[in-house]
Amino acid sequence: MPATTAHNLLTDNPELYEARFPDPDRLAGRWTEDRLRRHGAGPRVLDMGCGTGRDAAHLHRAGRTVTGADLSEAMLAHARTHHPGPRYVRADLHRFDLGPERFDAVVCLDSALLYCHTNDQLDGFLASCRRALAPGGLLVAEMRNGAYFLGRTDLLDTPAVHAFTWQGTAYRSTTTLTVDRTAQLLRRTRVWTSDDEAEPVVQRSAWRLLFPQELRHLLTAHGFDVLELHDGPGPRTEPPWQEGLSPGTAADADRLHVVARLAAPR
């Protein structure tokens, strides 16, 4: 019988995370830098949910002053060692306060924002961003698109299986997604097996399903002007974003990209 754990095999093992989700071309970081430049963001950037620090380090190398924040001590330790340059701090995206420093942009990639499961948590995140940003600062986020699951079941019908090798051990993950309509959550059950005779491990997590107009309303209610809200191209779309591509106009595919500017006080 597989063992169920509250721990996350990937976030507890950052090198394994990078092996499972490689980004050798730093596509996410390059897309983010392109958004920041396109909308004239200043140099001070906060990367909320920075994970292993790959994107934060890319923005640092692009000449920005970057703070990476995450809740996982293992991820932060990995980031400090393997992706130096930014300042790394522990913070909870549900509600954070990094002191008097103000940022020109807050970045939140790879569906990190969707770990705000409740309306209170979403309000806490956006209120924290509002406090952290300098006047005219940007919020740049990339995530799953809740609207994709309206009438579509292709991501729900069949478990997704991925296999890869890390440090000589072959790993296999089988991921099943289900929609909890009442909670408006996309629930994920992932079963890990490996060829080192370890017992299978079951992990459970969830993302909030946000819809484009719902997200636009939340941002506006917190004092942001929405500059971009579309399904791509982006770092995790097919085909992926490339330099020079303009933002799309639809919000129908499985990823959602948003750029919003903190409005001047009225």
UniProtKB/TrEMBL annotation:
Q: Could you confirm whether the keyword S-adenosyl-L-methionine appears in this record? A: yes
> Highest taxon of the source?
Bacteria
Transferase: present as a keyword of the record? yes
Entries under InterPro entries matching the protein: Methyltransf_25, SAM-dependent_MTases_sf
Q: Which residues form the Methyltransferase domain?
A: 45-137
- Region Disordered, as annotated, extends over 230-249
**Which keywords annotate this record?**
Methyltransferase, S-adenosyl-L-methionine, Transferase
PANTHER family in UniProt: METHYLTRANSFERASE, UBIQUINONE BIOSYNTHESIS O-METHYLTRANSFERASE, MITOCHONDRIAL
| Protein name, per record | Methyltransferase domain-containing protein
